[in-house]
TrEMBL record:
GO terms assigned for molecular function: DNA binding; DNA-binding transcription factor activity
Pfam families membership: HTH_1, LysR_substrate
Family: Belongs to the LysR transcriptional regulatory family.
Keyword terms: DNA-binding, Transcription, Transcription regulation
A GO term from the CC aspect: cytosol
Taxonomic lineage: Bacteria, Bacillati, Bacillota, Tissierellia, Dethiosulfatibacter
InterPro entries in the record: HTH-type_LysR_regulators, LysR_HTH_N, LysR_subst-bd, WH-like_DNA-bd_sf, WH_DNA-bd_sf
Protein name per UniProt: DNA-binding transcriptional regulator, LysR family
Length: 286
């Protein structure tokens, strides 16, 4: 039994499809099929029920699935720990940073941390909150700045509390409002972050609660593009208030029923935390 066989088996368990597992692992479909067949021969049991078109995992397979996850995690942790011990000169921390959070929170943290620990490189991995969460769960990043919800199997360090506010051009008719309700926003043209961003989910939920169909005229994952639309008075947007504080052409209006969000750093509880990552976590607590 090899680690590669366990890796292939877990991929099939995850995607419930050999072709898709092969695509994700960048190997051929016969490689996956042969590997699992050899694993079954070694164990003397069937791991996959092949009697129907859809792959199902047998009871023996479910047992192996749990143990295989533990084995591969121990191997990954051992590799990280040995590398961490052997290379103290230059360490890299991979931090997931959704664009909206990164635009106002990460730059200051990056500058101060790099000044204090020049031997450690902070590498930002920019994606929406939902994709960032997936990368964290799969161990592709060490930690992430995200909007805090109920994240199981993670450690959490709260950083800042803020609000999502309705941002309009200063010439917009709604700019006279000091606060605004969803009914007042109504069918106002809006620019939204694309799906995959937690922000998109929260704003859509607020529209749904108010029984209003949003008038979304454009989607983007680029904050500069969204702000440009607002500056030109083409549409309005729901943004974290700190993002537009320095924008003279944009007014951020608090909602009557505020969208409060808590932003923090999260990391996997059951994974090895490198010395460099521990320094970063401690730095945020200073």
């Amino acid at each position: 039994m090899t680690l590669k066989q366990l890796e292939y088996f877990l991929a099939v368990c995850k995607y419930e499809n050999i072709t898709k597992a092969a695509e994700k692992l960048h190997v051929s479909q016969p490689s996956i099929t042969t590997s699992i067949k050899n694993l079954e021969d070694f164990l003397g049991v069937s791991l996959i029920d092949r009697s129907s078109k859809k792959i199902t995992i047998t009871e023996e397979g479910k047992l192996l699935k749990g143990r295989a996850k533990e084995i591969l995690k121990l191997v990954d942790d051992a590799v990280e720990e040995v590398r961490d011990f052997g290379d103290r000169k230059k360490s890299i921390i991979r931090i997931g940073v959704p664009p909206m959070i990164g635009s106002f929170l990460f730059p200051g943290i990056f500058i101060e941390f790099s000044r204090k620990y020049p031997e450690i490189e902070l590498k930002a991995v920019e994606n929406g909150s939902l994709e960032t969460k997936r990368l964290l769960e799969e161990g592709e990043i060490d930690a992430a700045f995200i909007i805090l919800e109920s994240y199981e199997e993670t450690e959490v360090k709260p950083i800042v509390q803020t609000q999502v506010q309705f941002c309009v051009n200063i010439e917009n008719k709604l700019a006279c409002n000091d606060v605004i309700s969803m009914d007042e926003i109504g069918r106002e043209p809006v620019i939204m972050l694309k799906e995959g961003f937690y922000h998109n989910k929260v704003v859509r939920e607020r529209y749904s609660q108010s029984k209003i169909e949003p008038n979304i005229i454009y989607y983007s994952n680029q904050l500069d593009t969204i702000k440009s639309f607002v500056k030109r008075n083409i549409g309005s947007a729901f943004l974290i208030r700190e993002i537009v504080e320095q924008e003279d052409d944009i007014k951020a209006i608090p909602l009557k029923n505020p969208i409060e969000i808590n932003i923090g750093l999260v990391w996997k509880r059951d994974r090895y935390v490198s010395a460099a990552a521990r320094k970063f976590i401690e730095f945020l607590g200073e």
